[in-house]
Design a protein that fits this description.
The chain is α/β, with parallel strands linked by helices and about 675 residues long. It folds into five domains: about 130 residues, NAD(P)-binding Rossmann-like Domain (Rossmann fold), CATH 3.40.50; about 160 residues, 3-Layer(aba) Sandwich (Rossmann fold); about 150 residues, Succinyl-CoA synthetase domains (Rossmann fold, 3-Layer(aba) Sandwich), CATH 3.40.50.261; about 70 residues, Dna Ligase, domain 1; about 120 residues, D-amino Acid Aminotransferase, Chain A, domain 1 (2-Layer Sandwich). The chain has 24 helices and 28 strands. The strands form five sheets. Strands 8-7-10-9-11-12-13 form a seven-stranded mixed beta sheet, sandwiched between helices. Helix 4 links the parallel strand 4 and strand 5. The longest helix is centred in the middle third of the chain and has 21 residues.
C-alpha cells in the first residue's frame, strides 16, 4: 500500500461520486462544501447525468471533461455500491478516496461483504481510502472542505491538526479550537479506518510544515505498536495532546460506531503517554493544551519551574492552587528577583511567587521581564482582567520580550470583545492566550508534562537484561524461586508433599506461618479457600491442612505488616507487553489504582510509576509507615518486564501482594501464566 497521503489531503483535483441535485442528500451537501476548492472539481451521478450542468455519468467522463487530474474521489453512495465505484475511480486515475457512508462492518453480518469488497479493491489498486463511516476532513489552508457538516468551511487555517476517531468529534474539536482563537492545518475523522488509520495520518503530519501541534482523539486502536511507533516519530518533532475514550464501559457503543473492539482505557492512555503524547481528560483540556502547545514548547526538563504574575489576587490564587495540585513546581524567587520586584510594587503585595501586583500599572512589563529572568523560572503564567485604562496585556507582553525572553501563558478575563482583541494580539505575538485561571492551568500542565516526558525519554537508560523463565507450569514456590534469581526478596518457605513435611516446616520456620495450596493451576488461592494465615501451633496446622485438603502445600513464614502493592507484566492484545503497578492485595481489582507503562521499562522509568497512583502518599511514610525505595522498586519492575520479553511463551507474571515493609519490598505471592493457559 502506498504510504503517501498527499493525494488525499492535498489533491490537485476532486470528484464527487453520487453528487445530487437534491439539497438534503449527502452528495449535494458534499458538492456544496467542495464548491470553494480552488483545484479541479467534478461531479458524477451515473443515474442522473447532466453534462450541461457539470454532472457526468462516470469518473472517466468527468476527467476527460475537466482535462485535469482528479486525485481524490469522494464517494457519497450506499455501502453496497462503494467497491465498484472505487474500482472505477482508480481506473480513471484517482489515487485516494473518501467514503462517507455507513453500513459496513459496524452494522454486523449484513455489512461484512461490502466491507470485504471495499478493502479488497483498495488493496488491489493502491488507492488510499479514508473511512468509511466518517463525515470527512477539512484542510482550510488549501480551501478543501471534504465534509458534509455545515459551517466546516468557516474554520480558519492555522497550526493545529486534529486526528479524531470520529468525524463528529473532528468537527466538534475544530469548532472549539476556532472559538478559542486557533486555526487548523488539517482536521480528519478516521471513521472505520479500513485503510487510512490514525497512525498513517500522524506519520503524514510529522513532515507537514503547516502543522505545529496535533490533537489526537482515540476510541479504539486496531494496531497498538503501529500507533505507538507513529506517535514516537511525531512527538520527537511536534507536540501531541491525546484524549482517550473509554473510562467507563462503552464497548458496545464503540463497536456499533466503528465495528472495532474497544481497548483498555488505562492501557491506551499509558501507551500514548509512553510514546510522548500529553494525555488529557476531556475536550476542554484538549483545546487549552493545544492552544499552548501549538505556540510554545518548553525545553526538556525533569521539573520545570513556573512563575506566576496576577493582576487580581483571587484568580491568581485559583491558578496557583490548581497548578500546584497538578504537581507543577512554583519555586520561591531568588533574593535578587524579590529585591527588584520590591522596587516595582507597593510593599503590601505578595512578591515571592506568585506575584500579586495589586491593580497593574506602568511597571507591569518590567514585572514580567523580572520574573522571566529568575533562574528558577522556565515558564511564565499571567492572569489579568482587561483594563484598558490600566494595562494593555498584549503591549506589556511585547514590551517584556515574550515569548522570546521565555515561554509564557496569558489568561485574560473581561468583556468578550476586549478579550477577543487581546487574545488575537497575543496570538499574533506567539503567546498562547486563554480566558480563565483553569484554562491557563490546563495549558501549563500540558507544557510541563510535555517537557517532563521528553526529558524522561532522553535519559537513555536501558531496561534490565532479561532472564527467561524456566519451562513448564510454575507453582508459587517455583515462581518465587525464579524471582529470587532476579533479586526479589521472598519469605522463607518450604514446599511440602505430606503432613509430616508440613509439620517439620512449621518447626523449622517458626510460628506464625501461612499455609497455601501449591498448584500452578489455581491462580486465585484465597477465592478457592486455599490459604490459611497466622498458623502458630501443630493443632492450627492440622486444622489448616484439613481445610485446604490438597496434596501439596506451601508453608511460609509470615511477613511483617506493611503496604501491599501489585506488580505485573502481561501481553496486552493491542499494545503487546505492558507493566502494571498499583495498590495490591485482594482488593486490587476493585481499587484499580494503577500505573501502566509499555514493557520492557528501564529502572528509571519504572521508579517513576508510583507518581501516577492516587494513593502514592501511602508509599512515602504515611503516619509513620514504610517509605518506598524508588531505586529498589525500579530495578525490580524493570527486571520483571525484561523477563517477560525474554520468555515469549509467557503471557503474564504477577506479584500480588508485593509488600512494602520497613526492611524493603518482599514478594508474598507470585503467579506465572503461560500463553497456552491464557488461550485455553
Amino acid at each position: 500500500m502506498n504510504g503517501d497521503l498527499t493525494p488525499l489531503f492535498a489533491p490537485s483535483g476532486v470528484v464527487v461520486v453520487g453528487a445530487s441535485q437534491q439539497g438534503n442528500k449527502l452528495g449535494a451537501a458534499m458538492a456544496r462544501s467542495l464548491a470553494g476548492f480552488p483545484g479541479a472539481r467534478a461531479l458524477v451521478n451515473s443515474r442522473n447525468p447532466d453534462p450541461a450542468a457539470g454532472v457526468f455519468a462516470s469518473v472517466a467522463q468527468a476527467r476527460a471533461h475537466t482535462g485535469a487530474g482528479l486525485d481524490l474521489a469522494v464517494l457519497c453512495i450506499p455501502a453496497a455500491a462503494c467497491a465498484d465505484a472505487l474500482a472505477e475511480a482508480a481506473a480513471a486515475g484517482c489515487r485516494a478516496a473518501l467514503v462517507c457512508a455507513g453500513g459496513f462492518g459496524e452494522i454486523g453480518p449484513a455489512g461484512r461483504e461490502p466491507e470485504r469488497a471495499l478493502r479488497r479493491v483498495a488493496a488491489e489498486t493502491g488507492v488510499r481510502l479514508l473511512g468509511p463511516n466518517t463525515s470527512g476532513f477539512l484542510a482550510p489552508a488549501r480551501g478543501l472542505t471534504a465534509s458534509f457538516v455545515p459551517g466546516a468551511a468557516l474554520v480558519p487555517s492555522g497550526g493545529i491538526a486534529v486526528v479524531a476517531a470520529s468525524g463528529g468529534v473532528n468537527h466538534a474539536l475544530a469548532f472549539e479550537l476556532a472559538a478559542a482563537g486557533n486555526g487548523l492545518s488539517l482536521g480528519v475523522g478516521i471513521g472505520a479506518g479500513l485503510d487510512v488509520t490514525a497512525a498513517d495520518v500522524l506519520d503524514h503530519l510529522a513532515g507537514d510544515p503547516e502543522t505545529a501541534a496535533v490533537a489526537l482523539h482515540l476510541e479504539t486502536v486496531p494496531d497498538g505498536p503501529r500507533l505507538v511507533a507513529a506517535l514516537r516519530r511525531l512527538t520527537a518533532v511536534k507536540p501531541v495532546a491525546a484524549l482517550v475514550v473509554g473510562r467507563t464501559d462503552v464497548g458496545d457503543f464503540a463497536r456499533s460506531h466503528t465495528g472495532a473492539l474497544a481497548t483498555s482505557w488505562h492501557t491506551t492512555r499509558a501507551a500514548v503517554r509512553a510514546a510522548g503524547a500529553v494525555v488529557v481528560d476531556d475536550e476542554r483540556e484538549l483545546v487549552d493544551a493545544l492552544t499552548a502547545l501549538s505556540r510554545v514548547r518548553l525545553r526538556p526538563a525533569a521539573d520545570p519551574g513556573l512563575g506566576i504574575v496576577t493582576a487580581q489576587a483571587g484568580p491568581g490564587l485559583l491558578l496557583t492552587d490548581r497548578t500546584r495540585a497538578d504537581g507543577v513546581r512554583v519555586p520561591e524567587f531568588s533574593a535578587g528577583t524579590q529585591a527588584r520586584l520590591g522596587e516595582l510594587l507597593p510593599p503590601l503585595t505578595f512578591q515571592r511567587n506568585p506575584v500579586d501586583t495589586g491593580r497593574p500599572g506602568e511597571t507591569f512589563p518590567a514585572l514580567l521581564e523580572t520574573v522571566t529572568a529568575d533562574e528558577q523560572v522556565d515558564l511564565l503564567a499571567v492572569y489579568a482582567l482587561t483594563e484598558p485604562g490600566s494595562v494593555d496585556l498584549a503591549a506589556a507582553a511585547e514590551a517584556a520580550g515574550l515569548p522570546s525572553a521565555a515561554p509564557a501563558v496569558v489568561a485574560a478575563g473581561g468583556p468578550d470583545d476586549e478579550v477577543r482583541e487581546q487574545r488575537a494580539r497575543l496570538h499574533k505575538l506567539g503567546v498562547p492566550a486563554l480566558t480563565t485561571p483553569s484554562a491557563a492551568a490546563n495549558a501549563v500542565r500540558a507544557l510541563v508534562t510535555d517537557a517532563r516526558q521528553r526529558a524522561e525519554r532522553g535519559t537513555g537508560e536501558e531496561p534490565a537484561p532479561g532472564h527467561p523463565l524456566p519451562p513448564g507450569p510454575l507453582d508459587e514456590h517455583a515462581a518465587k524461586t525464579f524471582l529470587e534469581k532476579l533479586g526479589v526478596r521472598t519469605p522463607r518457605r518450604r514446599a511440602c508433599g505430606s503432613r509430616e513435611e508440613a509439620h517439620r516446616a512449621l518447626a523449622d520456620l517458626g510460628a506464625p506461618v501461612a499455609v497455601k495450596v501449591l498448584d500452578a493451576g489455581i491462580l486465585h488461592k484465597t477465592e478457592a479457600g486455599g490459604v490459611r494465615l497466622d498458623v502458630r501451633t501443630p493443632a492450627d496446622l492440622d486444622t489448616a491442612l484439613d481445610a485446604i485438603g490438597a496434596d501439596r502445600v506451601l508453608v511460609e513464614a509470615m511477613a511483617p505488616a506493611g503496604v501491599d502493592l501489585v506488580v505485573g507484566v502481561r501481553r496486552d492484545p493491542v499494545f503487546g507487553p505492558v507493566v502494571l503497578a498499583g495498590l495490591g492485595g485482594t482488593a486490587a481489582e476493585a481499587l484499580a489504582d494503577v500505573a501502566i507503562r509499555l514493557a520492557p521499562v528501564s529502572p528509571a522509568t519504572a521508579a517513576a510509576m508510583p507518581d501516577d497512583l492516587a494513593a502514592g502518599a501511602l508509599l512515602r511514610g504515611w503516619r509513620g509507615g514504610p517509605v518506598l525505595d524508588r531505586r529498589e522498586f525500579g530495578v525490580l519492575v524493570s527486571a520483571l518486564s525484561a523477563a517477560l520479553a525474554a520468555s515469549p511463551d509467557v503471557a503474564d507474571i504477577e506479584i500480588n501482594p508485593l509488600r512494602l515493609t520497613a526492611d524493603g519490598l518482599i514478594a508474598l505471592d507470585a503467579v506465572v501464566v503461560r500463553q497456552e493457559e491464557e488461550d485455553a
